[in-house]
Amino acid sequence: MADTRRVPDLGALELLLAVVRLGGVGRAAAELGVTQPAASARIRSLEDKVGVPLLERSARGSRPTEAGALVAEWARQVLDAAQAMDAGIAALRERHDPRLRIAASLTVAECLMPGWLVALRETHPDTAVTLRAAGSTEVAEQVRIGGADLGFVEGARTPAGLSGTVVAADKLVVVVAPRHPWARRRDGVTAEELAGTPLILRDGGAGTREVLDRALSSFGGTAPPLLRPASTTALKAAAVAGAGPVVVSELAAADELSGGRLVAIPVHGLDLNRPLRAVWPSGRRPTGPARDLLALTRRSRAGAGG
C-alpha cells in the first residue's frame, strides 16, 4: 500500500501547477487568492515532502526543475482525477439525497403546493420535504442564502440574483362580504376608488401587496391599510366578517367565492393578473428532487392550459 505521507495535498499541487503555468510564485498566489509569503512557504513545504527541489528561482520568476516538471505532470493527473471524483460524488448525491427544502409564498404554499407534493411523493416516496411559507421577499432571500433548494414567489419580475420560470397564473380579486355596500354595485368600482379606500392588506413583503402597489401606482398608490392580518386565512376571515374590502389571490379565495361567503367586485381600468414563479440561484440549475418538482409543476401547468 502506498505511503500517503509522501503525497502532497491537493491545494499544494494546484499551487505548483499555477506557478509552472504563470512563471512566478507571486502571480500564482494572486490568482489563487493567497499572499506571496504563504505561497512561498507552501512551495517549500511541498519540496520538503517530495525531497527534491521543484522550482528554479531567479529575478525573472520561477520555472520547474526537471523533477518539478515531472511532479507537475503527476499533479495534473491527480487533480483531474479529483475533479472527476467530485463530479461523481455530486451525481450520487443528486440521485440519493432524500431532502428537499422549499420556501413558498403563502398563495403557492396553501393553494398549489399540497397537490404538487402529493404528486412528487408518488415518484419520490423517500424524499423528506420541508416547506417554509413566507412572503415573497423572504422566500427570495432564503433561496439566495442557501436556506432553500427551490423557492416559489409572486410578482411581475424574477427577484434580483435569481433565475426563474413561471409555473402558474393567478390574478388578484377584490372581495367583500355579501352585506358590504360594494356587493350591491352592478358596475363594481374604479381604480381611483380602490386606491382611495382603506383596505385589509398584507404587509409590504407579500407578493400580493407588491402587485397591488404597482397596479395602483399611477392612481396615487394604496390608502393606509384598515387592517394588516399576518396570514391569508386571517385576511379572508376579516373580509367574511365584514371588516372591509380585501385584495386577495383568486386561487386563495376560491372556496369562499364558490360558497357565497365572499363576493368578487370588478375593478375597472386595473390589471391585477400576476404570474407565480419558481426561483433558484442564478447560474445553478435545480438538481435532484428540486429539479423533479420543477418539472412536475411545468407538467401541471401544461395540463391546465390544455
Automatic annotation (TrEMBL):
Cross-referenced SUPFAM superfamilies, in alphabetical order? Periplasmic binding protein-like II, Winged helix' DNA-binding domain
Gene3D superfamilies, alphabetically? Periplasmic binding protein-like II, Winged helix-like DNA-binding domain superfamily/Winged helix DNA-binding domain
Q: Where is the HTH lysR-type domain?
A: 8-65
Top-level taxonomic group? Bacteria
Is Ion transport tagged as a keyword?
no
Q: Which UniProt keywords apply?
A: DNA-binding, Transcription, Transcription regulation
Write out the similarity annotation.
Answer: Belongs to the LysR transcriptional regulatory family.
Q: Which PANTHER family match?
A: HTH-TYPE TRANSCRIPTIONAL REGULATOR, HTH-TYPE TRANSCRIPTIONAL REGULATOR CYSL
Can you say what this protein is called?
Answer: LysR family transcriptional regulator
